[in-house]
Design goal:
The protein is of the alpha+beta class. It is built from 3 helices and 15 strands. It has an 11-stranded antiparallel sheet with strand order 14-7-6-4-3-10-2-11-12-13-15, with no helix packed on it. A hairpin with a 7-residue loop joins strand 8 (about 155) and strand 9 (about 165). The longest helix is centred in the last third of the chain and has 31 residues, at about 235-265.
Length: about 375
């Protein structure tokens, strides 16, 4: 996925789909787009702080959800550019239309940098002795948490061979396998953390534009039909005002939801829609942000829509539960229109969580 330095009014849509991939293809030197597993950090410096990676509600460490490799053509400082999305794994934190349990960060590098070769990565698998399960970023020396792959300097007090982002993940690993493995030479270092979401590559393909003409035709037919309806008398209008107000939200909400379903029907397995400078595909007419709801970047530039996470992704995350559960209608990510450098640190961006309405649950 890539953006253009000059954002057009009619931005094209690129869809993302899940696909299995060899583990080495999902490592940072391959500049992957992926879901689940541990983050493949782009820049090895200026990573988000441990408190910055906590849920704003329960203050527990968030889990890596996905990353999108989205360089901006014609902008050297964004030759390499990745957006990282993390979310809380506590179901009770997911209240309707509240995004405090989700965070997004942007990292970018020029083509010539201290971490990666100037030329594109080779298509062949690297030597087998490559360390796929990184515990330390090789250039910066930043230590990573065994459980989540985020920065972590807290080492096991007994073996000092594994590090964690905090006490919560140290306890989780101890109960999972480390109690049996600690201080033993034969301890497994390839055990997959139970905290992680299942890992897949995000592969992309452009959305076909066949629907645009049809949408214009449908709109014209609607306007013609409305023009042909007899105007009601003032008395009738006043008498039906209350009913209309009650039905308006429901009717509009259903219309938006049906449009959402129709739009994704040709490719029902899409989990991401990328369209930098475009518009999200909303799942509801309620809780749609206005311009003032989207905060500007700390550099002063306006934030623009870049991509959204679809509800279909939830099916692959294994998070279903009968009570409270991790859930969303869509997650819309807005990023700095200038794609500023943010003092060479990972830049916090903005995510808007929209949930389906109660009525829509019966329509899904």
């Amino acid at each position: 996925m890539s953006g253009d330095g000059n954002v057009s009014a009619e931005a094209a849509v690129v869809m993302g789909f899940l696909e299995e991939a060899e583990p080495w293809r999902l490592q940072a030197p391959q500049f992957p787009s992926k879901v689940g597993g541990k983050p493949a950090w782009l820049s090895q410096r200026g990573l988000p702080s441990v408190p910055g990676l906590e849920c704003e509600i329960c203050r527990l460490p968030m889990a890596f959800l996905l990353q999108v490799y989205a360089p901006i053509s014609g902008q050297d400082r964004s030759f390499h550019r990745t957006l990282f999305l993390l979310c809380c794994k506590t179901p009770e934190c997911y209240t309707p239309n509240d995004s405090c349990c989700i965070k997004v960060f942007r990292s970018q590098l020029p083509r010539r940098n201290e971490f990666y070769p100037y030329d594109p990565p080779p298509e062949d698998e690297p030597p087998s002795d490559s360390d796929l399960e990184q515990s330390v970023l090789p250039v910066s020396g930043i230590k990573l948490c065994w459980v989540c792959g985020c920065p972590g300097n807290k080492a096991c007090s007994r073996c000092h061979s594994v590090t964690y982002c905090g006490k919560h993940h140290q306890t989780l690993h101890w109960k999972h396998t480390h109690k049996k493995e600690c201080c033993k030479q034969e301890a497994s270092i390839v055990t997959i953390s139970p905290f992680l979401f299942p890992e897949s590559e995000l592969v992309t393909e452009p959305e076909e534009e066949e629907t645009k003409k049809k949408e214009m035709e449908d709109k014209g037919e609607e306007e013609t039909a409305q023009a042909g309806v007899d105007c009601p008398s003032l008395a009738d209008t006043l008498a039906e005002t209350d009913l209309e107000e009650m039905a308006m939200h429901e009717t509009e909400d259903n219309k938006v939801f049906q449009r959402f379903k129709k739009k994704i029907a040709p490719e029902p397995h899409q989990v991401v829609r990328y369209s930098r400078g475009g518009s999200p595909l909303w799942v509801s007419s309620q809780h749609i942000p206005s311009d003032k709801d989207i905060p500007s970047c700390t550099c002063g530039a306006k934030r623009i829509f870049e991509f959204q996470v679809m509800p279909q992704l939830l099916n692959s995350l294994c998070v279903d539960s009968t009570g409270a559960s991790i859930d969303w209608g869509t997650l819309a990510v807005y990023t700095c229109s200038a794609s500023c450098n943010y003092d060479n640190h990972y830049c916090p961006e903005f995510v808007w969580k929209q949930d389906v309405s109660a009525d829509q649950h019966t329509l899904r």
